Amino acid sequence: MFAPFKPLDVERLRGDFPILARRIGEHPLCYLDNAATTQKPRPVLAAMQQFYEESYGSVARGVHQLSAEATGRYEAARAGVARFLGAASPDEIVFVRGTTEAVNLVAWSFARPRLDPGDEILVTELEHHSNLVPWQLVCEDRGAHLAVVPVDDRGEVDPEEFSRRLGPRTKLAAFAHVSNALGTVLPVVELIRRAHEAGVPVLVDGAQAVPHLPVDVGALGCDFYAFSGHKVYGPTGIGALYGRRELLAAMPPWQGGGGMIRSVDFERTTYDDPPRRFEAGTPAAAEAIGLAAALDYVGAIGWPAIERHERDLVDAAVAGLESIAGLRLVGRPRERAGVVSFVLGDIHAHDVGTVLDHFGVAVRAGHHCAQPLMRRFGVPATVRASFALYNTHDEVAALLGAIAGAQGIFGRSRRSGRSGR
Amino acid sequence: MSELQALYQEVLLDHYRSPRNQGPLESATGRAEGHNPLCGDRIAVAVEVAGERLNRVTFEGGGCAISTASASLMTEAVNGRTVAEVEALFAEFRKAVTGAPGAEIEPLGKLAVLCGVKDFPMRVKCATLAWHTLLAALAGGGKVSTE
User: What's the pLDDT tens digit per position in A348-385?
Assistant: First the structure.
């Protein structure tokens, strides 16, 4: 039996996001920069405000009522993240500031002690800088280096190419679930399987996947999975690292401080168990609660409807962009989530971005923190339109109209030819 | 004229499409490279200085319309000027593109077409990249960054 499919009531959902009513100059806001960060629905804002107004206190540090309530809410948020990701236990969820911090944590606490001179960490050519630089830092420290799986002209990663670069010196593989610059959905199940067959642990950067598709870390079988709250309708400053229990248990702390210890004296300190071992300092409790509310919000809408709606939007955007003369899509992945990247003739991406903004269309123009990938496609920068559950087909039309506007402005000088000096 | 049309004027687009003084400079006495890490744009400026005076300035690289046109217009504006005059001109130019109080259009000549940048604060660095690089070349070379 199939559950009856209920399409997304986008207009009603848009009412949950106050900022979407904004105007930019004389145009309604058309927010297509969701891969950078998403807007926040009222239930997220309300959960944080309610926490501050009713139950705020120090987490896991006091004996008073508010501290107990705050601790309960914080740990309930952790359990919510664990459920959302399909983790076996909340103890496998470490709260971090975001994907960047999660990758740094794994780099320093898990990878670094395992690296000897000449060892390798395997990444792909399409990684965000935050899934490259942390590894480079520990490699530099240990005399190890990065090995890189190339992407093909579609912007896809071929599992055979991946396997070719798995070697006896590979100590970890780290790759994106979804490319932030191209929208490519990587064959993560296949890549994880191949890495594990070679005895190589895997970190998946899920920053661009968690907002667009259901993730089940148990089914994926990955060792670590990282994501950021602000890209999935949650607040800034919070994200989560999933780590397999036995791996986390064997990892030394990364940052030292309060809240992560069992006992401290000047000779010797013993550390708390994961996940608290990795959460030194007063945690971002309100943000964790906001994140859990965001995941509940997405969960209540349901993946089938979100995926269908976003796929329709992305398909419409791709079709519309393809029909524009002089426009080149960068990356043609057969499986795509949320993101379309392009260049417009010889008009620089930043100029396109400025013109689009004038029409109220917010996109990202630049290298998307993926400079190696930009070099791979021979462009300094691209324009990236990225979609969320609250975007509409009218907004796709607004994007296409604004691009025509940019071509109009930049077409003038070509028609008039070169004027005198 | 909308802010957008004021930004992307004909003269600016012409200098973007057909940059002046773009290329290497055999007789260079100083060079510098400039980088805008925000957008990845890179530019190199070469100068030929005799005494206190700039005989010739060329640039290589570029990027968006604003940064390329600004570099092109700059090479024309500074030709034949003394180093002190170039510094004074940049000071005026910077005031104009940032919309600083007391900015005057008149001393800028053709550079005034870049004044539209003042309504686009995210683009000021595009307009000033070539100038920072020029001053670095005059100061003995090296690398500059807009960050």
Answer: 999 999 999 999 999 999 888 898 999 999 998 999 99
| B77: chain A residues, CB-CB within 8 Å | none
Residues of B in contact with A380 (CB under 8 A): 39-41, 63
CA distance A330 to chain B (A): 17
Contact at CB, A413 and B10, closer than 8 angstroms: yes
Q: Which of A354, A380, A412 sits opposite B123 (nearest CB)?
A: A354
3-state secondary structure of A70: helix
Report chain B's mean pLDDT, rounded to a whole number.
91
Rounded to the nearest angstrom, the minimum Cα separation between A377 and chain B is 15
Which residues, in sequence order, are CB contacts of A99 under 8 Å at separation 6+? Answer: A130, A131, A205, A206, A207, A226, A227, A228, A239
Residues of A identified as active-site: 369
Percent of chain A with pLDDT over 90: 88
A381 to chain B: nearest residue by CA? B39
Across the interface, whether the CB atoms of A349 and B122 are under 8 A apart is answered no
For domain A44-299, say whether CATH 3.30.470.20 is its number: no
Whether the per-residue pLDDT at B140 is higher than 90: the answer is no
Angle at A188 between CA A182 and CA A189, to 5 degrees: 155
Q: Give the tens place of pLDDT for each residue, A176-208.
A: 999 999 999 999 999 999 999 999 999 999 999
What is the predicted pLDDT for the residue at B1? 56
Indicate the domain borders of chain B. 3-139
Both tokens of residue A172? 């970890």
| Band (A107; pLDDT cuts 50, 70, 90) | very high
CB spacing of B65 vs A412 below 8 angstroms: no
- Nearest-angstrom CA–CA distance, A181 and A99: 16
A174 three-state secondary structure: strand
Mutate to test the interface with B, among A351, A371, A382, A412 (most CBs of B within 10 A): A351
Contact (CB<8Å) A418/B14: yes
Within chain A, all domains assigned CATH 3.40.640.10 are found at 44-299
Q: Is the pLDDT of residue A419 over 70?
A: no
Decide if domain B3-139 falls under CATH 3.30.870.10.
Answer: no
Kindly state the tokens that stand for B67: 């940064």
Fold adopted by A10-39+302-414: Aspartate Aminotransferase, domain 1 (3.90.1150)
Per-residue pLDDT tens over the stretch A132-149: 999 999 999 999 999 999
Q: Are strands A327-329 and A170-176 parallel, antiparallel or unpaired?
A: unpaired
Residue A385 bridge partners (DSSP): A340
Closest partner residue to A371 among B40, B63, B122, by Cβ?
A: B40
